[in-house]
Each structure stands twice: as C-alpha cells, then as structure tokens.
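The material for today's practical consists of a large collection of protein records. Read left to right, the backbone structure tokens trace the chain's path through space. An example says more than a description, so a record of this kind follows:
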Amino acid sequence: MESIHQSFHLEEFRQLKGEISTLLQRIEMLIKLSLFGGVAIYAWILIHVSPEVVSDTTKSAPQQSDSIRFLGYAGFLPPALLVFSAVMAWLTFRHVNVIADYLKRLEGLLGIYKYGWETHWQTKQRPMEYSLFGFLMLVLVIECAVSFYLQQHLAVLVIAAH
C-alpha cells in the first residue's frame, strides 16, 4: 500500500514541477509582451501624430488639438501595461510559491527532504527575484519619463517634424 501512495506522490510531484515551469514561462512572457507592447504603442503614437496644431497668438505655447492631446494621454498606456503585467507576474509568482511549499512537504513524504530542490532554495538567496524587480522598476521609471515627455512635448515634436 505504501508504494501506491509513494507512486501517487511522485506523479503529483512531477505534475506540479511541470506546472511551476509553465507558470515561470508565463511570467517571462508577460514581461516580454509588456516591453514589446510599450515600444509598439510609443511607435504608433509617433507615427500617427497629426500636424494639426492651432497656434494661439495670445499665448506663448501653441494649443494642442484633440488628437495630439489623445496621443499624449495614450503615451501612458505602456507604463500601465507594465504595471498590470508586473501585478500578474507577482500573482503568478505567489502561486508558484504555494506550489513550492507543497512540493517541500511532498519531498518530506518521499524521504528526500534534505536533498530536495525546494529545501535547497530555502537556504539560498534568490538574486533573480531582486534583479527582476529592479529591472521592472527601472523600466517603469523610464516609461513614465518618456510618457510625461511625450505628453508635454508632442505638439513641439509635430511642429519640428513637419
């Protein structure tokens, strides 16, 4: 009877390790898609800028048309996309940690507690987590700076381009 339980736990262990691998790939894909999506949105904004800028003679700065104002606000989509992707990545990572805790218990049931992968990582630092968080924060700061710049200077870029 014990071999049936051990076989069950071993198969469950394999399936959960596969699920962790899939979830980690999802995190990587979310980050890639948010970065490429942000670049695509910025490119779309710069390509679709319209030369409709109405000058107001009483003001030193030209008034912006509705389309330029819209494109300026659309420049905040990349940081929002990155934040939503980071939240999804964090939730996925939390799910991976729940599975990892369960796998650690399974390692104990299988008698490999001292040699298991989850037990191994329990005593180690995880530099990848800190690096990924730092990278996401850096990209978020850069995207916010680009978005604020676009919103403030899109009309000037239109005038300069045409």
Summary: The mean pLDDT is 79. Residues 2-51+64-161 form one domain. Residues 2-47 form the longest helix (46 residues). The chain has one domain: 2-51+64-161.
